């Protein structure tokens, strides 16, 4: 069966494309993309046209399938928080055709068997492409490196001890050198744990008023600076995860100006919220790194605007109510994000910070480049991974209606504008929210 997406506004940063076009999908691939792709060229084509499932998407935006390069799928080991199945459902509903999943599972994804398990399970769910990220160190304990080559061979796309920093600088150096020789990035969770120790929110005015121990910006900035220095020395590929501070943005901008191969991501909550969101002790807004101040939010937005920050990733961190419905200090860090990421990011377009094309670059084309996967494009011949967005759909976040098992969203009850209404992976419709 062929599928024709007709009349939408096609935005594909990989081809500098923003035009009203039709996309013909055949055998899971993008067969044609042009004005009136279904217009029969010959009589024989006319009868073939009857075999085409034509979907009218006038008024909608069509983009390369969104890619979330920072997701916690929790399986194996924490299935009460999320499974590959529920995480894939949440991803597809959020407009994602690909997600890269972090290794802080149980067991940690530090061996070929775990990487292969994730891939096998994801393939049987068959809703989104799942790209495992393997850990840098065994058990993410920061002592000895994992077998990078073996993990790459098993399907790992990058390495990270996310949730924890790689504290040992010598280990980080070796990790960067080794990963880079394989053409892969180290994704760094930048946190000096001596500085953040015991903190549960941003250190500042609000933490003082609430009487909660804070996590200072310098906990993030110090490790961003260290990792950039090591990346400079080794010439390696470094990706900075979940940037939340003005200082980190400045350091990354400077590194890029100097031509280093440093890339960076932020998550929607770092430009949509500040530490004011914790006034009511909402544990759903407790996240690591913590929500910062308005100055940091402005800097993160400016970093997104000028390209210092290459990627918006959800940092989807689903938790169970038992993890969150406890005293603030004891609550787990993390925000469920796959189903709110797109709408929150579209606010940047409404606010004139990014064009739609620049947004899709940060949510599809750039993550594909950093993970080195053949995605993030609508070029003819490529996989038909496509997201259709209704930029004007108004909806309200309802934590009880999320596909994810994680209901831990600080956006519950908030009005959103813009939504994925169709998610197509490999030419198959995996999610549909339209007549
Ligand atoms: O808030 C967070 N949650 N930050 C992390 O780095 C890890 C994540 C998780 O795994 O829950
Ligand atoms: Zn992290």
DSSP strand (E) fraction?
15-25%
Q: How large is the count of helical segments?
A: 14
Distance between the termini: 20 Å
Looking at the structure, the CATH topology of the largest domain is TIM Barrel
Write down the oligomeric state.
single chain
Summarize the structure.
This protein is an alpha/beta fold and 435 residues long. 32% of the residues lie in helices and 23% in strands. The chain has two domains: 2-62 and 382-432, Urease, subunit C, domain 1 (Roll); 65-371, TIM Barrel (Alpha-Beta Barrel).
Describe the structure.
It is built from 14 helices and 18 strands. By secondary structure, it is an alpha/beta fold. Strands 1, 2, 3, 4, 5, 16, 17 and 18 form an eight-stranded mixed sheet that branches. Strands 9-10-13-14-15 form a five-stranded parallel sheet. Strands 6-7-8 form a three-stranded parallel sheet. Helix 8 packs parallel to helix 9 and helix 9 packs parallel to helix 11. The protein is globular and about 65 Å long. The structure holds (4S)-2,6-dioxohexahydropyrimidine-4-carboxylic acid and zinc ion (ZN).
Give the helix/strand layout.
Blueprint: E1 2-12, E2 17-26, E3 29-34, H1 43-49, E4 52-56, E5 61-64, E6 66-71, H2 84-93, E7 96-101, H3 112-125, E8 129-132, H4 148-154, E9 159-160, H5 169-181, E10 186-188, H6 193-196, E11 201-202, H7 205-210, E12 214-215, H8 217-234, E13 238-240, H9 246-257, E14 262-266, H10 269-272, H11 294-306, E15 311-312, H12 321-324, H13 341-350, H14 356-371, E16 386-396, E17 415-425, E18 428-432
(4S)-2,6-dioxohexahydropyrimidine-4-carboxylic acid binds at residues 72, 104, 162-163, 189, 287-288, 317, 333-334.
